[in-house]
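Students often ask why we bother encoding 3D structure as a string. The short answer is that it lets us treat folding as translation between two languages. Here is a chain of 199 residues written in the first language.
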Amino acid sequence: MKYDFKNHRWSNLAWQPIIEASYFSNATSATPVSAAVKRGDTQLAIFKVRGKYYATQQMCPHKRAFVLSDGLIGEDPDDGTEEGKEKRKMWVSCPYHKRNYTLEGKTPGGCANDEEVSIATFDVEERSDGWVYLKLPSVAELDSLLGTERWKVKKEESEDPFKDMDKNTSNKGRKATKPTEVLDGNGSPTEKKINGLEW
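And here it is in the second language, the structure alphabet:
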């Protein structure tokens, strides 16, 4: 199940208070702060990096993992040219499989290393009332596209990740080895050996 989130057109967007700005008070130029929030059934990720806010869906669509707020935040390097400055942009990297999603620029939400996936991004701002606001559609519209229930991986859609491991660690066909005792001259045990190992 794939969807081009970056090109989706939302209707009836409105600014909505989502989280208190004080949550991001520890953000510095070197240390971004992120938050995972829920609106309706939709999980969102909010980042404050170098004094600027960004907001995206929480789900990385590559494997439908709800982890982007835990992702690595980075910036394209500045090559010193005017063209390089225009291309320079912030991105978030999924902590699981390192898909890098742009947070700004001409195509926010696009994936730099996998053109088949993208994420939804939202306008975000801190206001004087002490809250961080996101420009979002209605809960119903948001949930119809990004709701957790719609996108979570269901058991019948995935393989058991431990299936092969369980096969390799089963005791099927193995025989138990009893320790053998080594007796001293009086017939008392002095040590035990299992397949040549001393205990």
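Translate back mentally: The longest strand covers residues 42-49. Keep this in mind for the problem set.
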